[in-house]
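chain below, 474 aa
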Amino acid sequence: MCYECLHLGSWHGAPAAVRDGHAWSAAVAAAAGALAESVSSDGARLFDRQANGGWGEAVDMLPPPKGKGKGGGGGEERVEMTVLTKKAVAAQRARLRRLDVATMVASDVARPAVRELANAVHGRLQEMVEGRGGWARRRRSDEDEYGDGDDSDDVDPADNAPPSAFPTTWPDAAVRFNKLPPRSLDGTGLPVPRVDPPSLLDFPSVCRHRDDPADGPDSDPGRRATPVVLARAGAHWPAVQRWSSPRYLVTVAGERSVPVERSEGPASEGYAHASFVQTLTSLRGHVAGMIRAGRAECASSGAAGSSGRLETSRAPSYLAQHPLLDQIDALSADVPRLAWLALGESRGTCAWLGPRDTVTPLHRDRWSNLLVQVVGAKYVRLIPPATGIGAAADTEALFGPLRGGEGNTAAEGAMDRACAGDPPECPFQEAVLGPGDALWIPPGWWHHVQSLSPSASVNFFMSMTGGEGWGGGQ
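prediction:
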């Protein structure tokens, strides 16, 4: 109930005592863990018997097929084994979903234990679906529907398809600039400086950051910091190669539940669209939706490689601002910690995974932000805080009325209006990030982020001064 209210519904609809407290997260984590244990007990017990070779005893627990007697031959036993496995898998999936929700809402104290249990359950589930009675033993009709793995790059996978049905590369991965905001990349904005990754000691000077506790949260961040692109700083990450394969993501984490954001309107409107909703889905289902969106782009542009089986009625989803690495150990291992993060206190790590043209609208963050592009490309427009650096005297007035739960997001259309003049009312900087590039965004800088291709990113929030900040977002 707490998760549905706080994460999938409206914050304004949640009771203030729940919204402003932390006890609910520990309670929900404990309840989800207990419920997960209860709901899966029968399925886990049956699977234990199967795994230990006790098929005869397990089959006796189920009614025989209509018109058939027990033990009537290998064919009948195989049918019973399939039914048994499906029940066990369904129970284990229900258990994992509840534990994933518990991981998302648990307190910092409870989260490690819940995450460890969720990862253990996921490992057991993978054993069930990929081994005995699972995908490895799927029916011939399933092979006809999903493909045998050799032609999966030409087939649109279903949301519940096995990993072998997913392509090894993202469809329509070309970088396209045709839906960017006005005045993008036409010389109006200044390019964000691009430098080689600095040493740990040189990082503060490269980013012009004075780690001075006297600079509190109300002081002007732009006076002491500026954005900079650290070229290929994350190119050594295993994720840069591995996350380029949808099949890899589905193989290691396809069963996990993740929150996604979906709009029935144009993807370029992103968060701003009135029909925007949040929901839970499996990572497999989200990746399948990204593939459908890419193939729809291929079909609409006349590009080769479309299978012709496009499900365009479903709006593409966006996994946005989710602590995926804190939830799934296998994906966390693909993202080694960057040394520069030791210079500040961590304020959270978020992952972003979505199709082309997903947008995070203009907003500002309370913390320093290191945004690392993992797969594909993104366009970022940055506007400095107000005082003494060429921006309008009061950006809050220029971009208001501000939106979002923390009042840190510009009004719809405000950025386009402010940047459209000649010269623009609000000067800006811009950058295009490719795989491995990292963008340092100081606190307080307004930024608009847009995917130019199927895209995966990870960002790290941190406090460089120890003071409290303001804002929130990518």
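The CA atoms of residues 116 and 329 lie 9 Å apart. The chain has 16 helices and 14 strands.
thats it, cya
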